[in-house]
Design brief:
The complex is a heterodimer of chains A (202) and B (245).
Chain A (H helix, E strand, L loop, with lengths): L1 H29 L3 H23 L2 H18 L9 H27 L7 H5 L5 H19 L3 H11 L5 H8 L3 H18 L1 H4 L1
Chain B lengths: L3 H4 L3 H5 L5 H13 L1 H19 L7 H15 L29 H5 L24 E4 L12 H25 L35 E2 L2 E4 L3 E9 L2 E9 L5
Antiparallel strand pairs in B: 1-3, 2-4, 4-5
The chains are: A mainly alpha (202), B alpha+beta (245).
């Protein structure tokens, strides 16, 4: 129990250190320091990509979203007042950008009938055995498809929670909703996924 | 013991260990007795496990670098600003600790069009010296709900307004105004009006009060139509503009 508390305290301290570092980098970025931008980008790009990928369902599109989100950050950094953590702010921008991107993409595909977006799972197969890749591809495709079939609001809450270290409270902050709403959205999203993935997860 | 309906919203959070100790205890006690909710918790955990095990495909370092270079080039002014596919109003995306705005479905549809909520206007009664002949009731709050029978509220409101106005005009015929003020439009005397303004009255108040979108010309009267919400007209207030005359 004591050990668990110590671990929790250590995690909190680490999170605080990370947040403080973000604050320093944000201040430097506000003055136009490109190295600060580099570091912020390196620190948060994976998490931003994780959110974007699960919301747009394709690696290339997710990378596009990450670039758009960091461009928004760069252009809007002067407006960031530090009332929330940089991480929360960034995730909010990524979430909005991803949802916006999906609509943009849907319109574009509808216009040009250009539906050739490669799925991330297919690209990921490069570093794995054929069997693993095939299994991943199947499960990944099924999850992608299932996620795209749950409502935008529920999906966003679930995706944000699925990101490592994101609590319900943080999801609530990012989406601007109450924790109670986060609870129900995540619960409903997983119930729906359970129905949609009945074959895959048994 | 809590019922299924009471614990159901918390089952997902229970599976994720996101409840407070008190809430978790209440759910745990319920689960000891309820197999159906236990099954729901197991399913939540199972789906979460599958989601956790499925990571997004990795990205090559070269691709990360490419994006990083583009961002840096724009920041340093070495590249023209990229044309973005998404729009944003950065300042509206920073949650504040004091009040966290809720993302409504219409906002999700156009997430970057969101503007800060305008200050709530206060409808004030005109001073007794003013003689407006046009009463404009401003919509101070957008209608949140448009039910199938929203039009009924408008019809009822209009009918109620007409009845009250008619009743208010009868005494004006019986007791005509002794002298009209030169230059002022013809007005009805307010003797039968239920109340006369004695000063500014602020109507903007609780969240659920909205002033309906009504514009009406009533000589000598201020007409204020207020409603509980878009479906429910709560009151029609007719106040003479002339004061106690």
């Amino acid at each position: 129990m004591v050990g668990g508390r110590r671990q929790g305290d250590a995690a909190d301290e680490a999170a605080e250190r990370e947040a403080r570092r973000d604050v320093e980098l944000v201040e430097r970025l506000k003055k136009g320091d490109s190295k600060a931008l580099d570091e912020l980008y390196r620190r948060h790009r994976e998490a931003a990509y994780g959110i974007a990928y699960r919301l747009v369902g394709s690696r290339e599109d997710a990378l596009d979203v990450v670039q758009e989100a960091f461009t928004h950050v760069m252009r809007g950094i002067q407006a960031f007042r530090g009332q929330s953590s940089f991480r929360t702010w960034l995730y909010r921008i990524v979430t909005h950008a991803a949802l916006d991107y999906r609509r943009w993409r849907a319109l574009r595909v509808a216009d040009s009938l250009d539906g050739d977006a490669s799925t991330g799972s297919a690209v990921a197969a490069v570093d794995r055995s054929p069997q693993e890749a095939a299994a991943d591809r199947d499960l990944g495709a099924a999850i992608d498809k299932a996620l795209s079939n749950i409502s935008e609001k529920n999906r966003a809450a679930l995706v944000l929670y699925a990101i490592e270290g994101m609590s319900y409270k943080e999801v609530a902050d990012v989406l601007g909703i109450s924790i109670g709403t986060v609870m129900s959205r995540i619960f409903n999203a997983r119930q729906r996924l359970r129905e949609l993935l009945a074959t895959e997860i048994g | 013991m809590a019922t299924c309906d009471e614990v159901k919203p918390m089952l997902g959070a229970f599976a994720d260990k996101q409840l407070s100790p008190l809430e978790a205890d209440a759910v745990a006690i319920h689960l000891e007795q309820c197999g159906r909710c236990r099954q729901a918790v197991r399913e939540q955990q199972r789906v979460q496990h599958v989601l956790n095990s499925f990571q997004p495909p990795p990205v090559a370092e070269a691709q990360w670098d490419q994006i990083g270079k583009r961002l840096r080039a724009e920041l340093e002014g070495k590249a023209a600003p990229a044309k973005l596919k998404t729009r944003t109003r950065i300042e509206s995306l920073e949650p504040t600790p004091m009040s966290v705005p809720s993302l409504r479905s219409d906002e999700l549809a156009t997430p970057f069009q969101r503007s800060p909520e305008p200050p709530r206007p206060v409808i004030r009664m005109p001073s007794t010296s003013a003689r407006p002949t046009t009463v404009t009731v401003l919509k101070i709050r957008p209608q949140q709900r448009r039910g199938r029978f929203a039009w009924v509220a408008h019809v009822v409101g209009a009918a109620a307004a007409m009845i009250i106005i008619t009743l208010g005009m009868v005494p004006a015929y019986l007791y005509p105004e002794p002298a009209a003020i030169p230059g002022a439009p013809a007005t009805a005397v307010a003797k039968a009006a239920p109340m006369a303004p004695t000063g500014p009255i602020a109507l903007a108040g609780p969240e659920d009060v909205c002033i309906m979108d009504v514009e009406m010309t009533v000589p000598g009267y201020n007409l204020i139509v207020s409603g509980g919400d878009a479906d429910d007209v709560a009151a029609v207030l007719v106040v003479p503009s002339k004061g106690n005359g």
